[in-house]
Amino acid sequence: MAARRTLGFAVRNYSQASAKGWLTEDFLDSLRAVVGNGNVSTATPVCEQHGHDESMHRCRPPDAVVWPQNVEQVSLLAKACYSRGAPIIPFGTGTGLEGGVSAVQGGVCFNLTQMDQISELNTEDFTVAVEPGVTRKALNSYLRGSGLWFPVDPGADASLCGMAATSASGTNAVRYGTMRQNVLNLQVVLPDGRVLHTAGQSRRPRKSAAGYHLTGLFVGSEGTLGLITQATLRLHGTPEATVAAVCAFPSVQAAVDSTVQVLQAGIPIARIEFLDDVMMGACNRHSGLSYAELPTLFLEFHGTENSVEEQVQATGEIVQSNGGSDFVWAREQEARSQLWAARHNAWYAALALRPGRKGYSTDVCVPISRLPAILLETKKDLLESKLTGPIVGHVGDGNFHCLLIFDPEDAEESRRVAEFSKRLVRRALAMDGTCTGEHGIGLGKRQFLREEVGEVALSTMQQIKAVLDPKNLMNPGKVL
């Protein structure tokens, strides 16, 4: 069977649908009987559309795509696949960055976007239940006027159940936490079609000491244990006052030192994002801005008018002590939206540095005390490797990304990208960090997961997988 390498990882060519005993017309008819003819497709363009995400991993299409409308249909479809031994690949918005939707063994892709109901909004309890077709922007639009919002913001308008599956994070995590802290309950269809409620059906307490933490098991499982068909989420009160600011620094060290000192001071900052000088230059050109092209922090403060003023004053003193510039303010909603749009468009700004090339985003995270050291070493490594790699990060969590822009057709440059990425991950692991702060393991980081957690932990994960998915049908080839 043909094989090639993408960023140093082996990739097999699984274009052999005819050799799969389960892929019969009778089987496809059984899927059509559940969801209707119009909600089953084996068309090549449709399958290819569902065989990749936003990552650099090669497209590996499923053999069929189905669009269930409710959890009952998901259950029946899963039973059909389970009885035939057909792999199952969940699909949301396709915005992942680690190849999590690639059908490495073929199979049936479950596109869950038509399940888009928002239900069980309990404003007094700060909870809401959503189906997998609901994106974070759609939820916050629905919540407008309720005095509540959902703060986990990975940048892309990802589906909320997909965000749960990858344990997504983003710019607000420093104050509001990641998906792990904001998911209270999950409805999951197991590989054999059984429906599981991880915290009990319809339950939504803010805390519980009842048994194993099954919700936490499925958050971050990347579709390898079951299909998430509903998530009960923790909501937060919309802050009375919000102020955003930008501040430039003479060095990376000064910017990151300020971050650490702000957190050590107990300032409840909502967002604190780092962009290096290369990234600031790219954002200026891409978004028509005129910020100083220096290491920069984007900050946001939430609270009452008085508490925000106190946060700003305390942060300003720390920034000045580290040589930071005066704050450039964004107080009105429109100005704040423009500021954060520039930050969220950093990926496209980086790509514009080398038009026609591709991007690869790294995703390490370290204890915040190690941030200055790893960022300085990484900047040095980028220069020595002669790579274009602007840096952007959720530094309040110790998480940052090198956005590597390169020509995948250039074997030598691709080799340097792969070797740099390995060094970066191992540098993070050596500093007691992790290989992935928020993107997940997917296809490309399985070896690093082994190095990070060790053989006993990995073996435990494999045993859990074997119990819940004994036929290894759920998104096979990912994570483990």
Q: Can you offer a commentary on this structure?
A:
By secondary structure, the protein is of the alpha+beta class. About 35% of the residues lie in helices and about 20% in strands. The protein has 16 helices and 21 strands. The strands form five sheets. Strands 14, 15, 16, 17, 18, 19, 20 and 21 form an eight-stranded antiparallel sheet that branches. α1 (about 25-35) runs antiparallel to α3, α9 (about 250-265) crosses α11 and α14 packs antiparallel against α15.
Give the SSE map.
Blueprint: E1 3-6, E2 9-12, H1 25-35, E3 40-41, H2 44-49, E4 64-66, H3 71-84, E5 88-91, E6 108-111, E7 118-122, E8 127-130, H4 136-143, E9 148-149, H5 160-166, H6 173-176, H7 179-182, E10 183-189, E11 195-197, H8 214-218, E12 227-234, E13 236-237, E14 241-248, H9 252-264, E15 271-275, H10 277-287, E16 296-303, H11 305-321, E17 328-330, H12 333-344, H13 346-351, E18 358-361, E19 364-365, H14 371-385, E20 391-394, E21 399-406, H15 411-430, H16 446-468
Parallel strand pairs: 4-6, 5-6
Antiparallel strand pairs: 1-2, 3-4, 7-8, 8-12, 9-13, 10-11, 10-12, 14-16, 14-17, 15-16, 15-20, 18-21, 19-21, 20-21
Helix pairs in contact: 1-3, 9-11, 9-14, 14-15
Short structural description:
The chain is of the alpha+beta class. 37% of the residues lie in helices and 20% in strands.
User: pLDDT below 50 for ≥5 consecutive residues: which ranges?
Assistant: 1-18
Distance between the termini: 22 Å
Number of separate helices: 16
Helix content bin: 25-40%
How many whole angstroms does the radius of gyration measure?
Answer: 23 Å
Shape: globular
Give the structural class: alpha+beta
Q: What is the arithmetic mean of pLDDT?
A: 93
Strand percentage, roughly? 15-25%
Can you summarize the main beta sheet? 8 strands, antiparallel
Number of strands: 21
